[in-house]
Amino acid sequence: MPANKPSEIDTATVRRIARLARIAVKDAELPALAKELGGILAWVAVLDEVDTAAVAPMASVHDEVLRWREDRVTDGGYSADIVANAPAQEAGFFAVPKVVE
Amino acid sequence: MNLPASISEARARLADRTLSANELVRAELKAMAAARPLNAFITETPEIALAMAGESDRRLARGEARALEGIPLAIKDLFCTKGVLTTAASHILDGFQPTYESTVTRKLWEAGAILLGKTNLDEFAMGSSNESSHYGPVKSPWRRAGDNRPLTPGGSSGGSAAAVAAGLALGATGTDTGGSIRQPAAVSGVVGLKPTYGRCSRWGIVAFASSLDQAGPFARNVRDAAVLLRSMAGFDPQDSTSADRPVPDYELACERPARGIKVGVPGEYRVAGMPPEIEALWQRGCDWLKAAGAEVVEVSLPHTKYALPAYYIVAPAEASSNLARYDGVRYGLRVPGEDIQQMYEKTRAAGFGCEVRRRVLIGTYVLSAGYYDAYYVKAQKLRRLIKQDFQAAFGRVDAILTPTTPGPAFALGEKADDPIAMYLNDVFTVTANLAGLPGISVPAGLSADGLPLGLQLLGPAFAEETILTLAAELERAASFTARPEPWWRLP
Question: Is residue B482 part of a domain?
Fold first, then answer.
C-alpha cells in the first residue's frame, strides 16, 4: 500500500470528512463510522495491485468533446418556479439565516 | 375483466376497442390499491391516471392512437414529474413537487402512456435491496417455497420491478447506475434493460452518479421492453451527454434470427463460490443460444475483479458532489441551526439515511486533498482498463452472456449489516455502467427454492438491437411462465 494511504481511519478523520461534507455527526457515532469507512477503504485498496502508471484516467465514457451551442439565452423567466419548493422565501428570493454581520 | 398480460396484448385490445384505456387503468388502480402490503409505490396518482386515460380513449376513438396510447406505467420516484411529489425515497426531499417534467417521462406521456404512480426505491438509488428507502422497503411479490419471510425485490428500482412482477403496471421505468434495473429485474422475474450511456436523457432525473446513471424500462417480456425503450430514447439537447443519433425500431430486433451472432462467455465471471444453480443456468443459456444458431466462445475480461472496488470510489465521489445541492435552501427539508453552517449540517444529518451518508462520506474522502490521486484517479484509470477489456472482447464477439446476479432474492434484513456483502450483488452488472454499455436481464429459470433467476446479455455501445435479438431467443427457449402467488392482495 502506498505511503499516502492510511491503514485505518481514525475518529478525527471522520470528524474532518463529515465537516467537509456538511453532515453533523454525533461523537458517539464516530467510532462505528470510522470502522465502516475503514472497511470500505481497505476493500477498494485491491486496486493498488494493478500497475496503472501508463493509463490515462477516464472521467466519462464519452470520448468526444462537449457539443457547442449558440451563445444566446434559451431558458429563464420563471423565478416563481425556481423558489416554489424553497423551505423559506422572501420576495422571490431564497431566505437563509444571516450570513453577513 | 382479464388484465392484459403484456403491452403488446393491451395495444391490440385497445386498438380493436375490446378494451378501453379507462377500463384498463381502473383495473390497474384496483390492483395497485390491493397490493399496498408490497409498499411498491410511494405515491399513487389515480386522478392523473384517469384523466390521461380519458384523453387516450378520445384519441383511440378518433383513430389517432400514439405508440403507447393508453398503456399504464409505474415511474421510479427518481424521475421528476411536474406537480407530483418526487422524493428519491429520501427524507431530505420532503414535499418536493417539481415544476418541470423529466425528458424520459415527458416522452412517455407524449407517446400516450399513463402515469399510475411513483415507485419506491433505495434512497437516491443507492442500494441493492430497497432497504435504504425512507419509506420502508418494498416486499418482493415472490416468496421462497414453504417460507413466508419477506424477500427483497432487489434494488435500487425495487418498486418498479415489484409493480411489474405483481401485475400492478404493464411496464415501468428504472434507472441503472451499477445494476439498479437489471438486478431487481432478475430477482423479480421480469425483463430489465439498461441502455447505452447517453441513449436516454438524464435531464430531470435526480442525479446519483452522473457518468454512470442511465434510465431504462422494466417489462413482462423482451418485446415490451423494446417498445418502451423506443419511446424513452432519443437525443435531448438539455443533457450534455445525450447521444445525437437516430432511435431504431427496437421491436423489429426481437424478430431477427440469432443465427450467426457471436456470443462471448467471460471466464472471469466464474467467481469463487458461485452457486451451482447459477452456473447451471449460465450453461443452459449458452446451450439455448447455440441451439438457435449463435456461436458461443470464451472471452477474457481480465480486469473484472477490479470493477466493483473502482465503482465504489467513482460512484460515491460523484454522489458526494451531486448531493451537495441538498442543503435546506432550495427544496425539501430544512432543520434550523444557529447559523447557516449549522443549518446545512443539521439538515443533511436529519435528511440523509445511513447508506447515503456512508457514500457521501466515502466520496468526500476520496476526493479530499491528499487522497484524490490515490483513490479517485486510480479508480478512473481502472475504469479505462475495464472499458478497454470490453473493446477487445467486442473485437471478437457481438455480445456477452453472463448471469445477472450471484444468487436469487435474499430476505429483508439478511445483508443489512454488512455494506460490502450488499455491494457484491452488483458484481456482474457494474462493469456495464463503468464502460457505458447496454445490458438486459431476462428471466431464465427458478432457484431450488422457487425464486426467479436472470441471465444478462451485454453489447457494444448502441448495440441494443443485438442484445434484444438474443434476449428474445433466450426468452423463447426459457419459456419462463412462473408467477408469484398473490399473497399480498387485500380483501
Answer: yes
